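The passage that follows is intended for readers who have already worked through the single-chain material. We present the inputs for a multi-component assembly, then the predicted structure in tokenized form, and finally a short commentary. You are encouraged to pause after the input and sketch how you expect the pieces to fit together before reading on.
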Amino acid sequence: MHSTHAMIRLTRDLAAPFAVTVPGRVAIAVIVPPGELAAWKVEIRAPDGTRVVDGDATSDRAGRVAVSNGDIGALFGDGLEWNVRRFDIDARMLGSWSVRCVGIAAEAQGPCVALIEDAHNVALAAQWQSFRFVSGNPIAMNVSWRAHDALVLDASHVDAAVIGPNGMALPVDIAAQGDHVVVTATPTEAGRHTLTIQATTIALNGAPIVRTIETLIDVAASGLQLTGGVARIASDAASETLEFAMTGTADSVVLAAEVWTADTTDPVPVCWLATIAPLVGNELSKSAALAFDRRWLRVAGVREGTSLELRHVRVHDRRTWGVVDMIDAMPLGPAVLPPNDAVVDIDAMERGRAGGHSAPMTISELPPADDAAPGNHALLIVHGYCSGGVTFPPSAFTGPVGVFLDINQAKSNDAFAQTLLAYGNQYKSYGVAAHSQGGLASLHLYTFYWSGLDWAKPNATGGSRLIQSVGSPYQGTPLAGNLAILGQIFGTGCGSVTDLSPAGATIWLSTIPTWARQKVWYWTTSFFDGPGFDYCNIVSDFFLTDPDDGVVEKFRGQLPSANNMGHTTGWCHVEGMADPPQCTDATRNAQINAQAAR
Amino acid sequence: MRHDLNTATALVATLLATSASADTLCASGSTPIPDGGGAANRSIVVATPTSTSVITDAVVTVNVTHPWVGDLRLVLKHPSGVEVVLLDRLGIPSVGFPGPWGCGGADIAATFSDAATIDAETTCSTTATPVLAGVLKPFAPLSVFDGLAPQGTWMLVATDEATIDAGALGQVCLTLVTASVCPGDLDATGVVDGADLGIVLGAWGECVECSADIDQNGAVNGADLAIVLGAWGACR
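Having made your guess, compare it with the prediction:
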């Protein structure tokens, strides 16, 4: 991930500096708690001390206040109600500028956060060293400058904070390592952790350039481990069960592995396996299993008796979906081919590769929809994270339509999928029109559970698309981390979802196979880049890389191996943004309706 | 022998009451299975000239077109009213797979036999059509019919027990293996008489799988003759 913004928490009347080394636009937003907008005034000073912005008054001596001086209510769905005031300035005076929150009434009690994006082509880049987030194990992030010139990050100019689930800050180590800095902390308990990194460099004119990164991770409890043993148990002539010996405590785990031939010179990949598996056994002996369809050996051209091995055997925590243990290679023994008359049905084999989908956990049933008869073959309209209601207009779709409503929720993809499964169970079969996280949840549902998606059939006109999504952050969105930090400051609305962060999405996508992705047709959109607004949302614009729809960046909205239906401009993620909400595009909705399997 | 009388309602056939024989009777056509509780019946009338044969095995082949086989219940009814459930809403109750509405696959072209190794109730594929095919073990054993007389009107009842989807019952074939309870009555006339004696004498000597070898020892000899003479007269 990378950042071109600075998010700085200001105490009352304290100024945040920003540098202007070349004339250009600087965007500044100030966020204050709900109901306190009138109690604060924003003061922006030029290097000569001129107050370019002083409350509602603006001066044109050193810079022109260009665009916005307004409020917004909801940043992202109905869950958040922060007051924001944004200024876009054409800064002509070079040097060190500042922005300050000034309390002008007794109601100015809460914190004030300044978001600054200057014209410098300098980004702060960060990358996790490992996605294994387990309590007791260090987590480490490499941080460096990404700039047009060789800019080396100085460890002494880096500050970092890791906040654990109990709200306490963890000890953080910041050390230089070559041309980058490594930020390390060791979580001591499982749960949500947020990480904030602030780095500063000094421009040639002495003005400070500040960048911050905000992200979040879910740390799993320690204890779940592979012991290195795997037993092969024949299920029938064409398949076998691979039982992995494990230690630890959990009802179920996510297991994944690759099957290869063990040939050191020319190894042949056979297949990829993953499933949600119950952890069975007693205190002395526990195991979780993957199903291995031996017909993949025939597909790969493997001969009887060829030595096989498993690679990248991974265990993911069921709750956090994070990797908790991995073994790079495990011998599997000789290949046992299926009978010659075993039918090689690739579609069926791929669908079965998840190893017999686990039954869903018990969850409360949602109220049934009243818009399609139970037992019907429907099109489900599925909203996204923290949605306040329906996103796609139901009237845009014909035939039985099921409107999934689980409003103002922040659920992991797995929990979301199980809720969707419970709702969808009132229908025999269905295709899905999904918005935002609804696309990820639908894909997760299809990958790991049996549902009405498995029985969806072409509609009367032959449309056979299983999952069609708009504005889904398949590769995450930085907003997940930004909002998590803002939530810590101002209080959360719906709450944050780690699966929606770039790191969380990377982990999640690593368990989503190609055969499932191929059943997804997806669209992305972004704002109309013309005169006036050049963003969808005045706050998320600070965090996202253009083009974006106010929540999802175009590049992170891509789902490799799925069906990219293209990108359109002039449409934003939800209502209340600069352009109309993307789910109301009648042309696209007509296509979704015509092409949906049911 | 296979009879296909192309009638949607009934057929009549004669089963030979030898010591062991099998015959297949079919009824073709396409009878709608009404949605949500409606049933389609296909009757097969089996006529035998005597009451001396009993069923030792029953096999039934059923063809159904239906987009959601999990809706269906198939029952084979013996003329006496004894019923065997061949299929009872495939996939219900669910164990995660295939979902709360049962197996969503389409169509049946399957033979139900107790000798099958694959259980029909656990056979469901998201990709195969017909979803039930080949020889399958029925929900309840067809051996319930063993020992019953074959003759009379048999009925295959296909019921759609859920809404939304409907289908049609196609050809039904019933194979009954019968055995005589009057072993000397080789010509199944209900009487052991000179005709039966003639059959034994005519086949005298080594004989493999011939009806005159009543004790099935590979030869028609004095032992078989003794059975005929011992049972002389009307069968009881």
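Commentary: The first strand of chain B starts at residue 2 and ends at 4. The longest helix of chain B spans residues 194-202. How closely did your sketch match?
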